[in-house]
Amino acid sequence: MRNLKLTLSYDGAEFSGWQVQPDAATVQGTLASVIGRITGEKVLPQGSGRTDAGVHALAQVMTFVTESSVPTENFVKAMNDILPASVRVLEVMEAPTEFHARHSARAKTYRYRIYRESICSPFLARYVWHYPYSLKEETMARAAALVVGEHDFTSFAAVDPERGRGREGEPASNVRAIFSSSWERLGEEFVYTVRGSGFLHHMVRNLVGTFVLVGRGTLQPEDMARILEARKRSAAGATAPASGLYLVGVEY
What is the pLDDT of residues 66-99, one digit of tens each? Predict the structure, then answer.
């Protein structure tokens, strides 16, 4: 048996998210089908996390166990020959038996792109959040810095019915460590980059939606502490669109 680690990139607009679903095109389901055609095995590849419908990945990581003897370099070519153009396998390598794409992850980085000009090209629209309205970008940057550290991010987490429970049946912890959180201007775009130990369902999109309220003046940067302490989803802003979000990379 071999444990293979794959790094891949995909256009999330083409899929109904990562996780396999009946009667819907998903990244996981597409990959499982392609692997099955190559190896003749029925496998369900495990990703580092479940990206939502419309969310993109620059370097998602997944693992699967196989009895196939196909060399790793041949896996890359064979999979890319079959996969739709919206998914590319960047690398395949042998991993230790105990390695798992999700359980072994130590940090992840996400990026969110807001397009600020008045007109957004139709060829860019599904890869950004088009927001041409007035925003105090420097104020948003100040707010972003205030979530760095270890906090309970319940206020920024969507309800996830499929999420497991912790020890002794207690609800799983919503505490996460954020190592860096910043906004920067890149041409016509205002881009948010966040790196942390892990992220809750919709957490990055909910953070972005709240930062936009700060940029509009509805909230102040100092309100971030109050929102975190509230531990209520209703205390934070609306969920930003999926189109602007990218999983940039996973660290092990």
Answer: 999 999 999 999 999 999 999 999 999 999 999 9
Q: Which of 11, 23, 52, 160 is catalytic?
A: 52
CATH placement of domain 107-251: 3.30.70.660
Task: For the full predicted model, state whether its pTM sits above 0.90.
Answer: yes
Calculate the average pLDDT of the chain: 95
Active site residue 52: yes
Between CA 54 and CA 50 the distance in angstroms is 12
CA distance 92 to 58: 15
CATH 3.30.70.580 fits 2-95, yes or no: yes
What does 43-88 look like in DSSP terms, one character per residue?
---EESS-PPTT-EEEEEEEEEEE-----HHHHHHHHHHHS-TTEE
Structural domain boundaries of the chain? 2-95, 107-251
